[in-house]
Amino acid sequence: MTPSKILLYLCLLFIGGVFIYSLFISTQDNQVSQYYNQEVNIKGVIIEEPEKRINQQKFQVQTEEIPGKILISTELYPKYSYGDELEITGKLLEPAVFEDFDYQEYLAKDKIYLVMYWSNINRLAENKGNWFFQRIFNFKDKLRNVIEQTLLPPQSSILKAIFLGDRFGLSNELKEKLNISGTRHIVAISGMHMIIMTQILLFLALGIGLWRGQAFYFVLILLIIYIIMIGAPASAIRAGLMAGLLLLAQKIGRLRSADRAVILAATAMLIFNPLLLKSDVGFQLSFMACLSIIYLKPILDDKMSKWPNPWRSKDILTMTLAAQLGALPILIFHFGRLSLISPLANLLIVPLLPVIMMSGIILSFVGLIWLSLAKIIALPVYFLLSYLVKVVDYLFSFPLAAYEFKNISWIILIGYYIVLIFFIWRQNRKYVV
Predict the structure, then answer these.
(1) Do 71 and 207 have their domain in common?
(2) CA 282 from centroid of its chain's CA atoms
(3) Which structural domain, as residue segments, surrounds residue 257?
(4) Do 85 and 173 reside in the same domain of the chain?
(5) Within a domain: residue 135?
(6) Are residues 240 and 344 in the same domain?
């Protein structure tokens, strides 16, 4: 598929998305608006793993009486778990819409239409959730406990974020440093993070001598296990699907043909949930990162064809650059910041992500069997994570490490992609001629 056809598809997708989106929103409003500001006494079950934050916890509850999901925010203690059946008394509220952030749409993409704050909660029963996910979350808790017993913050918080998706344990200061250095994606289970991780694992598998088919199955199995282990949230499944399609295209040696599969998968996701296009940054990043790797990586590979490639390091570099060039305007548009130090930061950190991930896996599983041995294994893991922290700290202190934008227009975002598509078209035309 040529870049011009992709541009035409994106225009059609936008027009169709606006129509489906309007129908979706009107249907949703009719279903839930009657419950706004009502004092209720409801019984429901926690259907996702609760988010444990510094001073509160949030969890999703589903009831038989009210459509969609309800997001409950309450005190940190007592702690609640997936599958707990609760009796909740409080006021149902419409999610707020802030000046710079539409919280209502952000929640609606996950079918959460109502919120409750600081309600009276009574736990009626435990283990009322899905049997399989109950076991998964219990196992994840054990892995989390091993990390907390063998490492201290911020190293433990970073490993839990990279390995288990526990992003809420990071301090605000560390999050800001990651944002400014352009490395926030390494501690988020986002589409770009998962695509970069699977690609690096693929390159490393090929680097140690596995055939392309063996490497594909090796990485695919790890990807599936990982998604299940973190609880298979919808965002991870969507990101995993994109990453899996990219892996499949590389297995059969038809990377350029993967664009059709990626576009088809994105279209199917948007038909079922049109809010993803506007409100899910992870979906946007994974989609653009996939297309950028498909179209930009071969061009970058050609430009760097004479560079040495020990242990596939050049492949990792071109893949990371391609993904980031595709995702750059989305990151700027949503977060209002351009990290000028990001290429260097990612070059110094991203190649170590698989090592950190595998070290975290070894540490956690050994700790389940023999905690004392895990504390010894934790030493090299600690140094790896300390290296990551030091790099982020050092680059964060650079003058002009990031540039702040005010009131970014979506027209600039469209303009960037038009220029990028034109560049890809020109490069491809040179090869054809």
Answers:
(1) no
(2) 5
(3) 146-432
(4) no
(5) no
(6) yes
pLDDT tens digits, one per residue of 36-62: 888 888 898 998 888 888 788 999 998
Cα three-residue angle 72-25-408, rounded to 5 degrees: 85
Asked if 77 and 120 sit in the same domain, the reply is: yes
| pLDDT tens per residue, range 102-148 | 787 778 778 888 899 988 999 999 888 888 888 888 888 888 899 99
Pairing of strands 112-117, 69-74: parallel
- Together in a domain, 325 and 368: yes
User: Residue 8 and residue 343: Cα distance in Å, rounded?
Assistant: 31
Single out the residue of 25, 1, 61 nearest to residue 291, CA to CA: 1
Task: Please name the residues in contact with 360: beta carbons below 8 A apart, sequence gap of 6 or more.
Answer: 147, 159, 162, 163, 381
Task: Quote the pLDDT of residue 21.
Answer: 59
User: 122-126, 263-267, 389-393 — which is least confidently predicted?
Assistant: 263-267
Decide which of 432 and 119 is more confident: 119
Identify the CATH number of the domain in which residue 63 sits: 2.40.50.140
Tens-place pLDDT, residues 148-174: 999 988 899 888 888 887 877 788 888
Cα distance between residue 163 and residue 156, in whole Å: 10
Domain assignment present for 392: yes
Dist. CA 292–CA 275, nearest whole Å: 23
Residue 139 lies in a domain: no
And the tokens for 97? Answer: 């819409």
**2 part of a folded domain:** no
Q: Does residue 206 contact residue 370 with C-beta atoms inside 8 Å? A: no
Total structural domains in the chain?
Answer: 2
Mean pLDDT of the chain: 80
Compute the distance between CA of residue 299 and CA of residue 425 in angstroms, rounded to an integer: 11
Residue type for 410, please?
W
Same-domain status, 59 and 198:
no
**Could you tell me where the beta strands, DSSP code E, fall in 47-119?**
51-52, 57-62, 69-74, 85-91, 112-117
